[in-house]
Write a structure and sequence with these properties.
The chain is built from 13 helices and no strands. By secondary structure, the chain is mainly α. It has a domain at 87-275: MetI-like fold (Orthogonal Bundle), CATH 1.10.3720. Residues 95-300 form the ABC transmembrane type-1 domain.
Length: 315
């Protein structure tokens, strides 16, 4: 099993390296001069040339890539062309905000999806099972930003239970943080939970038809007891795959939700840097998002090896 995990780590590192080449190449060919962004359009040609030299833009692309990737490996994300501040100083606090929002949204999705999907599968031929299945199908059709607007309208504008937007730091008080986190997390989690519930239902239904569950019932276990004791672990394997995909969707969806709820997160920073054409910052933020997606896939692959005994034996 250790060898399999080490192999997965190797694949992760190679994929991250290939992704860094793609990100660097694509953002290098985007129109616009970072030196002109830093100095303004009224800068003289001599000043622009000096600024390009100071920023290393006079170097060939391979040398610039090598310097950038070595900086990433050591935590140096470069300097913003607009603010002249280290990119990491702007990125780090917003990354924490986004990770908190994504974690809360995925937590809501799992809390909604797992019981809803299991009940919809167990009661699939009953009216309440059909109701839960239809409810999840309705949730799939609602985009996250629309769910956010509806939640703001109901719970912030009319009921005044939660703030309509803004953010507070965790150090400013847990209660205030939870009030500001509730609606954005629900906007992300309810929609993705509805999607995930469909997969949970399908996976549990497939497991219920397996021979080993019929054997367990023949030995005296009730259908639900047999499912809980022998079936859910196997049903979790395909759900784990979908959960990884949904987690990446939640991560990307947080970009839109941060704008809806005026949250100073990584997505909001990315859109702001795109507006100001600060390509050094955009490059770093995109790479952080790519690494986050790859890391999620790596964790899921490792969990496969732990959960599925067939993979452990093969390893």
């Amino acid at each position: 099993m250790v060898i399999r995990i080490l192999r997965q780590l190797g694949v992760f590192l190679l994929t991250a390296l290939a992704a860094s080449v793609v990100v660097f190449t694509l953002l290098s060919v985007v129109p616009g001069d970072p030196a002109e962004v830093a100095l303004g359009t009224s800068a003289t040609p001599e000043a622009l040339e000096a600024q390009r030299e100071a920023m290393g833009l006079d170097q060939p692309a391979p040398a610039r890539y090598a310097e950038w990737i070595m900086g990433l490996a050591t935590g140096d994300f470069g300097v913003s062309a607009v603010t002249q501040q280290p990119v990491i100083d702007e990125l780090a606090p917003r990354l924490g905000t986004t990770l908190l929002l994504v974690g809360a949204g995925m937590g809501v999705a799992l809390i909604v999806a797992v019981p809803l999907g299991i009940v919809a599968a167990i009661r699939h031929n009953k009216p309440d099972g059909a109701f839960f299945s239809g409810l999840s199908q309705l949730g799939v059709a609602v985009p996250a930003f629309l769910a956010g607007i509806l939640l703001i309208t109901v719970f912030a504008v009319h009921l005044r239970w939660f703030p309509s937007g803004g953010w507070v730091r965790p150090g400013d008080g847990l209660g205030d943080l939870l009030r500001h986190l509730a609606l954005p997390a629900l906007s992300l989690g309810l929609v993705q939970g509805a999607v995930l519930a469909r997969y949970v239902r399908s996976s549990v239904l497939d497991v219920k038809r397996e021979d080993y569950l019929r054997t367990a019932r023949a030995k005296g276990l009730s259908p639900n007891r047999a499912l809980m004791k022998h079936g859910l672990r196997n049903a979790a394997i395909p759900v784990l795959t979908v959960s990884a995909v949904q987690l990446t969707v939640v991560l990307i969806g947080a970009v839109v939700i941060e704008r809806v709820f005026v949250i100073n997160g990584l997505g909001d920073l990315l859109l702001m840097k795109i507006d100001t054409r600060d390509m050094q910052s955009v490059q770093a933020i995109v790479m952080v998002l790519v690494l986050a997606v790859l890391l999620i896939n790596l964790i899921v692959d490792i969990l496969y090896t732990i959960i599925d005994p067939r993979l452990r034996e093969r390893a």
